[in-house]
Design a protein that fits this description.
- One of its GO terms (molecular function) is glutamine-fructose-6-phosphate transaminase (isomerizing) activity.
- Its main location: cytoplasm.
- With 369 residues, the chain is α/β, with parallel strands linked by helices.
- The protein has 12 helices and 12 strands.
- Strand 8, helix 10 and strand 9 form a beta-alpha-beta unit.
- The two termini are 30 Å apart.
- The structure holds fructose -6-phosphate.
Length: 369
Protein backbone atom coordinates (compact mmCIF):
# COMPACT_ATOMS: atom_id res chain seq x y z
CA UNK A 1 0.00 0.00 0.00
CA UNK A 2 0.89 3.66 -0.37
CA UNK A 3 1.69 4.08 3.31
CA UNK A 4 0.60 7.71 3.55
CA UNK A 5 2.18 8.81 0.25
CA UNK A 6 -0.04 10.62 -2.30
CA UNK A 7 0.90 8.08 -4.97
CA UNK A 8 2.91 4.91 -5.48
CA UNK A 9 5.26 6.93 -7.63
CA UNK A 10 5.95 9.37 -4.76
CA UNK A 11 6.57 6.42 -2.45
CA UNK A 12 8.86 4.71 -4.93
CA UNK A 13 10.85 7.89 -5.62
CA UNK A 14 11.35 8.22 -1.86
CA UNK A 15 12.46 4.58 -1.62
CA UNK A 16 15.39 5.09 -3.99
CA UNK A 17 18.11 5.29 -1.33
CA UNK A 18 17.03 1.82 -0.14
CA UNK A 19 16.69 0.51 -3.71
CA UNK A 20 20.35 1.36 -4.31
CA UNK A 21 21.51 0.16 -0.88
CA UNK A 22 19.64 -3.15 -1.17
CA UNK A 23 21.07 -3.77 -4.65
CA UNK A 24 24.61 -3.26 -3.33
CA UNK A 25 24.04 -5.17 -0.08
CA UNK A 26 25.75 -8.56 0.12
CA UNK A 27 27.76 -7.83 -3.03
CA UNK A 28 30.77 -6.09 -1.50
CA UNK A 29 33.58 -7.59 0.51
CA UNK A 30 36.90 -5.94 1.47
CA UNK A 31 36.78 -3.29 -1.24
CA UNK A 32 35.80 -5.81 -3.91
CA UNK A 33 32.55 -6.49 -5.72
CA UNK A 34 31.52 -10.07 -5.05
CA UNK A 35 28.36 -11.20 -6.83
CA UNK A 36 27.48 -14.66 -5.50
CA UNK A 37 25.07 -15.29 -8.41
CA UNK A 38 27.99 -15.01 -10.84
CA UNK A 39 30.23 -17.56 -9.10
CA UNK A 40 31.83 -19.87 -11.60
CA UNK A 41 31.44 -17.48 -14.55
CA UNK A 42 34.96 -16.03 -14.54
CA UNK A 43 35.97 -18.00 -17.65
CA UNK A 44 32.90 -16.76 -19.46
CA UNK A 45 33.76 -13.15 -18.59
CA UNK A 46 37.37 -13.65 -19.71
CA UNK A 47 36.28 -15.20 -23.00
CA UNK A 48 33.77 -12.69 -24.30
CA UNK A 49 34.80 -10.06 -26.81
CA UNK A 50 31.57 -8.14 -27.08
CA UNK A 51 28.64 -7.13 -24.88
CA UNK A 52 25.20 -6.24 -26.17
CA UNK A 53 22.78 -4.79 -23.66
CA UNK A 54 19.16 -5.13 -24.66
CA UNK A 55 16.08 -3.58 -23.06
CA UNK A 56 13.11 -1.30 -23.70
CA UNK A 57 12.15 2.14 -22.46
CA UNK A 58 13.60 3.28 -19.18
CA UNK A 59 15.59 0.05 -18.85
CA UNK A 60 17.29 0.89 -22.17
CA UNK A 61 18.53 4.16 -20.67
CA UNK A 62 20.00 2.26 -17.73
CA UNK A 63 21.59 0.08 -20.43
CA UNK A 64 23.31 3.13 -21.93
CA UNK A 65 24.88 3.97 -18.58
CA UNK A 66 25.86 0.28 -18.34
CA UNK A 67 27.57 0.48 -21.73
CA UNK A 68 29.82 3.26 -20.47
CA UNK A 69 30.58 1.35 -17.25
CA UNK A 70 31.39 -1.91 -19.04
CA UNK A 71 33.58 -0.20 -21.61
CA UNK A 72 35.42 1.90 -19.04
CA UNK A 73 36.01 -0.81 -16.47
CA UNK A 74 35.90 -4.11 -18.34
CA UNK A 75 37.37 -2.70 -21.59
CA UNK A 76 34.96 -4.75 -23.70
CA UNK A 77 33.12 -3.12 -26.60
CA UNK A 78 29.51 -2.74 -25.49
CA UNK A 79 26.43 -1.69 -27.44
CA UNK A 80 22.85 -1.05 -26.51
CA UNK A 81 20.12 -2.54 -28.69
CA UNK A 82 16.44 -1.84 -28.21
CA UNK A 83 15.03 -5.33 -27.76
CA UNK A 84 12.34 -4.87 -30.41
CA UNK A 85 14.93 -3.83 -33.01
CA UNK A 86 17.40 -6.56 -32.16
CA UNK A 87 16.03 -9.61 -33.87
CA UNK A 88 14.49 -8.10 -36.96
CA UNK A 89 17.80 -7.92 -38.73
CA UNK A 90 20.80 -10.19 -38.72
CA UNK A 91 22.94 -9.09 -35.77
CA UNK A 92 26.53 -10.30 -35.50
CA UNK A 93 26.49 -12.41 -32.37
CA UNK A 94 28.06 -15.69 -31.35
CA UNK A 95 29.47 -17.63 -28.45
CA UNK A 96 31.85 -14.81 -27.49
CA UNK A 97 29.00 -12.33 -27.22
CA UNK A 98 27.42 -11.67 -23.86
CA UNK A 99 23.86 -10.40 -24.21
CA UNK A 100 22.80 -8.59 -21.05
CA UNK A 101 19.07 -7.96 -20.80
CA UNK A 102 17.54 -5.47 -18.40
CA UNK A 103 13.95 -5.69 -17.27
CA UNK A 104 12.19 -4.58 -14.13
CA UNK A 105 9.28 -6.94 -14.63
CA UNK A 106 11.22 -9.75 -16.28
CA UNK A 107 8.13 -10.30 -18.46
CA UNK A 108 8.49 -7.69 -21.23
CA UNK A 109 7.77 -9.70 -24.38
CA UNK A 110 10.10 -7.70 -26.64
CA UNK A 111 13.00 -8.23 -24.27
CA UNK A 112 12.17 -11.91 -23.71
CA UNK A 113 12.13 -12.54 -27.46
CA UNK A 114 15.50 -10.80 -27.85
CA UNK A 115 17.00 -13.02 -25.12
CA UNK A 116 15.62 -16.19 -26.71
CA UNK A 117 16.92 -15.09 -30.10
CA UNK A 118 20.40 -14.38 -28.66
CA UNK A 119 20.48 -17.81 -27.06
CA UNK A 120 19.45 -19.55 -30.26
CA UNK A 121 22.31 -17.73 -31.99
CA UNK A 122 24.73 -19.16 -29.42
CA UNK A 123 25.31 -16.03 -27.31
CA UNK A 124 25.66 -16.15 -23.54
CA UNK A 125 22.85 -14.39 -21.71
CA UNK A 126 22.73 -12.53 -18.43
CA UNK A 127 19.60 -10.89 -17.09
CA UNK A 128 19.34 -7.88 -14.77
CA UNK A 129 15.86 -8.19 -13.29
CA UNK A 130 13.81 -6.89 -10.37
CA UNK A 131 11.32 -9.76 -10.14
CA UNK A 132 12.42 -13.06 -8.62
CA UNK A 133 11.72 -16.05 -10.82
CA UNK A 134 10.32 -14.05 -13.76
CA UNK A 135 10.46 -15.43 -17.29
CA UNK A 136 13.47 -13.47 -18.60
CA UNK A 137 15.85 -14.57 -15.80
CA UNK A 138 14.57 -18.15 -16.21
CA UNK A 139 15.44 -18.01 -19.90
CA UNK A 140 18.94 -16.62 -19.21
CA UNK A 141 22.24 -18.31 -18.32
CA UNK A 142 22.75 -16.02 -15.33
CA UNK A 143 20.87 -13.33 -13.42
CA UNK A 144 21.83 -10.38 -11.26
CA UNK A 145 18.73 -9.28 -9.38
CA UNK A 146 18.05 -5.65 -8.58
CA UNK A 147 16.57 -5.34 -5.11
CA UNK A 148 14.37 -2.29 -5.58
CA UNK A 149 11.31 -4.04 -4.13
CA UNK A 150 7.98 -4.19 -5.95
CA UNK A 151 7.41 -1.25 -8.29
CA UNK A 152 3.71 -0.47 -8.69
CA UNK A 153 3.59 2.94 -10.43
CA UNK A 154 3.66 2.57 -14.21
CA UNK A 155 6.52 5.06 -14.51
CA UNK A 156 9.72 3.35 -13.49
CA UNK A 157 11.84 5.17 -10.89
CA UNK A 158 13.43 3.08 -8.16
CA UNK A 159 13.93 0.14 -10.53
CA UNK A 160 15.90 2.44 -12.84
CA UNK A 161 18.42 3.51 -10.19
CA UNK A 162 18.71 -0.11 -9.06
CA UNK A 163 19.38 -1.19 -12.67
CA UNK A 164 22.19 1.34 -13.01
CA UNK A 165 23.59 0.17 -9.67
CA UNK A 166 23.55 -3.48 -10.78
CA UNK A 167 25.28 -2.57 -14.05
CA UNK A 168 27.98 -0.65 -12.16
CA UNK A 169 28.51 -3.73 -9.97
CA UNK A 170 28.66 -5.93 -13.07
CA UNK A 171 31.12 -3.67 -14.88
CA UNK A 172 33.43 -3.54 -11.87
CA UNK A 173 33.22 -7.28 -11.32
CA UNK A 174 34.00 -8.13 -14.94
CA UNK A 175 36.78 -5.52 -14.94
CA UNK A 176 38.40 -7.16 -11.91
CA UNK A 177 38.06 -10.65 -13.43
CA UNK A 178 39.69 -9.45 -16.67
CA UNK A 179 42.38 -7.50 -14.85
CA UNK A 180 41.45 -4.12 -16.31
CA UNK A 181 40.45 -2.64 -12.94
CA UNK A 182 43.15 -2.36 -10.25
CA UNK A 183 42.52 -3.15 -6.58
CA UNK A 184 42.82 0.56 -5.80
CA UNK A 185 40.30 1.52 -8.50
CA UNK A 186 37.96 -1.17 -7.26
CA UNK A 187 38.20 0.06 -3.68
CA UNK A 188 37.49 3.64 -4.77
CA UNK A 189 34.48 2.58 -6.84
CA UNK A 190 33.16 0.41 -4.03
CA UNK A 191 33.39 3.40 -1.69
CA UNK A 192 31.36 5.40 -4.23
CA UNK A 193 28.70 2.67 -4.32
CA UNK A 194 28.50 2.60 -0.55
CA UNK A 195 28.11 6.39 -0.39
CA UNK A 196 25.46 6.52 -3.12
CA UNK A 197 22.30 5.84 -1.04
CA UNK A 198 23.14 8.70 1.34
CA UNK A 199 23.67 11.04 -1.60
CA UNK A 200 20.34 10.06 -3.20
CA UNK A 201 18.71 10.81 0.16
CA UNK A 202 20.42 14.20 0.19
CA UNK A 203 19.06 15.12 -3.26
CA UNK A 204 15.57 14.12 -2.11
CA UNK A 205 15.87 16.12 1.11
CA UNK A 206 17.37 19.24 -0.41
CA UNK A 207 15.84 19.55 -3.87
CA UNK A 208 12.34 18.04 -3.67
CA UNK A 209 10.56 21.27 -2.66
CA UNK A 210 12.58 23.42 -5.06
CA UNK A 211 11.91 21.16 -8.07
CA UNK A 212 8.23 20.76 -7.20
CA UNK A 213 7.89 24.54 -7.04
CA UNK A 214 9.52 24.87 -10.47
CA UNK A 215 7.09 22.33 -11.89
CA UNK A 216 4.17 24.24 -10.37
CA UNK A 217 5.26 27.37 -12.24
CA UNK A 218 5.50 25.43 -15.46
CA UNK A 219 2.15 23.63 -15.47
CA UNK A 220 1.16 25.37 -18.75
CA UNK A 221 4.38 24.53 -20.56
CA UNK A 222 3.85 22.76 -23.87
CA UNK A 223 7.33 21.40 -24.44
CA UNK A 224 10.46 20.73 -22.40
CA UNK A 225 13.90 19.79 -23.70
CA UNK A 226 16.65 17.88 -21.87
CA UNK A 227 20.34 17.96 -22.76
CA UNK A 228 23.22 15.85 -21.51
CA UNK A 229 26.61 14.48 -22.54
CA UNK A 230 28.33 11.22 -21.67
CA UNK A 231 26.23 9.51 -18.99
CA UNK A 232 24.14 12.68 -18.79
CA UNK A 233 22.74 11.80 -22.22
CA UNK A 234 20.74 8.74 -21.11
CA UNK A 235 19.52 10.76 -18.14
CA UNK A 236 18.29 13.46 -20.54
CA UNK A 237 16.39 10.75 -22.42
CA UNK A 238 14.93 9.41 -19.19
CA UNK A 239 13.91 12.89 -18.00
CA UNK A 240 12.04 13.39 -21.27
CA UNK A 241 10.37 9.97 -21.13
CA UNK A 242 9.14 10.50 -17.55
CA UNK A 243 7.57 13.82 -18.55
CA UNK A 244 5.88 12.39 -21.66
CA UNK A 245 4.55 9.37 -19.80
CA UNK A 246 2.89 10.99 -16.84
CA UNK A 247 2.34 14.65 -17.73
CA UNK A 248 1.56 14.23 -21.46
CA UNK A 249 3.84 17.14 -22.31
CA UNK A 250 5.98 16.98 -25.39
CA UNK A 251 9.54 16.41 -24.29
CA UNK A 252 12.77 15.42 -25.97
CA UNK A 253 16.19 14.46 -24.74
CA UNK A 254 19.28 15.18 -26.81
CA UNK A 255 22.99 14.58 -26.62
CA UNK A 256 24.15 18.14 -26.04
CA UNK A 257 26.65 17.87 -28.89
CA UNK A 258 23.80 17.26 -31.33
CA UNK A 259 22.32 20.66 -30.60
CA UNK A 260 24.12 22.48 -33.40
CA UNK A 261 23.26 19.66 -35.83
CA UNK A 262 19.56 20.46 -35.72
CA UNK A 263 17.71 20.68 -32.42
CA UNK A 264 18.95 24.20 -31.65
CA UNK A 265 16.37 25.35 -34.21
CA UNK A 266 13.73 24.47 -31.61
CA UNK A 267 15.02 27.05 -29.17
CA UNK A 268 12.85 30.14 -28.96
CA UNK A 269 12.43 32.65 -26.15
CA UNK A 270 11.02 31.01 -23.03
CA UNK A 271 11.66 27.38 -24.11
CA UNK A 272 12.46 25.44 -20.92
CA UNK A 273 15.62 23.33 -21.23
CA UNK A 274 17.08 21.10 -18.53
CA UNK A 275 20.83 20.67 -18.85
CA UNK A 276 22.75 17.94 -17.04
CA UNK A 277 26.17 19.35 -16.28
CA UNK A 278 28.96 16.83 -15.70
CA UNK A 279 31.40 17.53 -12.91
CA UNK A 280 34.42 19.64 -13.92
CA UNK A 281 36.49 17.39 -11.63
CA UNK A 282 36.05 14.44 -14.02
CA UNK A 283 36.73 16.27 -17.25
CA UNK A 284 37.30 20.00 -17.54
CA UNK A 285 36.82 19.66 -21.30
CA UNK A 286 33.45 17.90 -21.10
CA UNK A 287 32.28 20.42 -18.52
CA UNK A 288 33.40 23.36 -20.65
CA UNK A 289 31.57 21.94 -23.68
CA UNK A 290 28.32 21.71 -21.74
CA UNK A 291 28.73 25.22 -20.34
CA UNK A 292 29.20 26.49 -23.88
CA UNK A 293 26.03 24.62 -24.97
CA UNK A 294 24.22 26.42 -22.17
CA UNK A 295 25.50 29.77 -23.42
CA UNK A 296 24.32 28.96 -26.95
CA UNK A 297 20.75 28.20 -25.88
CA UNK A 298 20.66 31.03 -23.37
CA UNK A 299 21.65 33.48 -26.09
CA UNK A 300 18.53 32.33 -28.00
CA UNK A 301 16.26 32.94 -25.05
CA UNK A 302 15.96 29.46 -23.54
CA UNK A 303 14.93 29.19 -19.93
CA UNK A 304 17.81 27.11 -18.60
CA UNK A 305 17.43 24.78 -15.64
CA UNK A 306 20.76 23.31 -14.74
CA UNK A 307 21.52 20.17 -12.75
CA UNK A 308 25.08 20.55 -11.55
CA UNK A 309 27.26 19.36 -8.73
CA UNK A 310 27.57 21.35 -5.53
CA UNK A 311 30.13 24.11 -5.85
CA UNK A 312 30.11 24.30 -9.66
CA UNK A 313 29.96 28.08 -10.02
CA UNK A 314 30.69 28.20 -13.76
CA UNK A 315 27.01 27.54 -14.54
CA UNK A 316 25.66 30.35 -12.39
CA UNK A 317 25.88 33.25 -14.86
CA UNK A 318 23.90 31.35 -17.52
CA UNK A 319 21.28 29.45 -15.54
CA UNK A 320 17.77 30.54 -14.61
CA UNK A 321 17.60 27.79 -12.00
CA UNK A 322 20.26 25.56 -10.49
CA UNK A 323 19.49 22.18 -8.99
CA UNK A 324 22.37 20.74 -6.98
CA UNK A 325 23.60 17.17 -6.67
CA UNK A 326 26.40 15.97 -4.37
CA UNK A 327 29.88 15.19 -5.68
CA UNK A 328 30.19 11.67 -7.06
CA UNK A 329 32.33 9.71 -9.50
CA UNK A 330 31.50 10.22 -13.18
CA UNK A 331 29.65 6.93 -13.64
CA UNK A 332 27.74 7.38 -10.38
CA UNK A 333 26.33 10.82 -11.18
CA UNK A 334 23.35 9.51 -13.21
CA UNK A 335 21.83 7.91 -10.13
CA UNK A 336 21.76 11.34 -8.48
CA UNK A 337 20.92 13.48 -11.52
CA UNK A 338 17.80 11.50 -12.48
CA UNK A 339 16.09 12.15 -9.14
CA UNK A 340 15.19 15.82 -9.74
CA UNK A 341 13.84 14.90 -13.19
CA UNK A 342 11.55 12.25 -11.71
CA UNK A 343 10.31 14.75 -9.13
CA UNK A 344 9.77 17.35 -11.85
CA UNK A 345 7.64 15.00 -13.98
CA UNK A 346 5.64 13.89 -10.96
CA UNK A 347 5.04 17.42 -9.68
CA UNK A 348 4.07 18.70 -13.12
CA UNK A 349 1.59 15.87 -13.66
CA UNK A 350 0.16 16.52 -10.20
CA UNK A 351 -0.13 20.25 -10.97
CA UNK A 352 -2.13 19.30 -14.08
CA UNK A 353 -4.42 17.15 -11.95
CA UNK A 354 -3.32 13.86 -13.51
CA UNK A 355 -3.08 10.42 -11.90
CA UNK A 356 0.68 9.84 -11.84
CA UNK A 357 0.40 6.13 -11.08
CA UNK A 358 -1.91 5.24 -13.97
CA UNK A 359 -1.00 7.24 -17.07
CA UNK A 360 -3.30 6.83 -20.03
CA UNK A 361 -2.56 4.18 -22.66
CA UNK A 362 0.19 2.51 -20.60
CA UNK A 363 0.48 -0.75 -18.70
CA UNK A 364 3.09 -1.62 -16.11
CA UNK A 365 4.29 -4.65 -17.94
CA UNK A 366 4.16 -4.92 -21.73
CA UNK A 367 3.59 -8.61 -22.37
CA UNK A 368 2.76 -8.30 -26.06
CA UNK A 369 5.16 -7.70 -28.93
C1 LIG B 1 9.02 3.88 -18.22
C2 LIG B 1 8.69 2.47 -18.16
C3 LIG B 1 8.89 1.63 -19.38
C4 LIG B 1 9.64 0.35 -19.00
C5 LIG B 1 9.75 -0.60 -20.19
C6 LIG B 1 10.52 -1.86 -19.84
O1 LIG B 1 8.76 4.53 -17.03
O2 LIG B 1 8.28 2.00 -17.14
O3 LIG B 1 9.60 2.33 -20.38
O4 LIG B 1 10.91 0.71 -18.52
O5 LIG B 1 8.46 -0.95 -20.62
O6 LIG B 1 9.90 -2.55 -18.79
P1 LIG B 1 10.66 -3.69 -18.02
O7 LIG B 1 11.83 -3.07 -17.31
O8 LIG B 1 9.68 -4.30 -17.08
O9 LIG B 1 11.14 -4.69 -19.07
Amino acid sequence: EKGGWPSFMAKEVAEQPEAVANTVRGRIRDGEVVIPELDGLDDLFRGIDRVIITACGTASYAALVGKYAIEQWARIPADVELAHEFRYRDPVIGENTLVVSISQSGETMDTLMAVKYARERGARTLSVCNTQGATIPRESDAVVYTHAGPEVAVASTKAFVAQITALLLLGLHVGRVRGSVSAAESAAAVAELEALPGKVAKVLAEEQAHVAQLAGWMADTRSVLFLGRHVGYPIALEGALKLKEISYIHAEGFAAGELKHGPIALIEPGQPVFVLVPSPRHSALLHAKVVSNIQEIRARGARVIVIAEEGDAAVLPFADEVIRIPLAGALFEPVLAVVPLQIFAMALATAKGLDVDQPRNLAKSVTVE
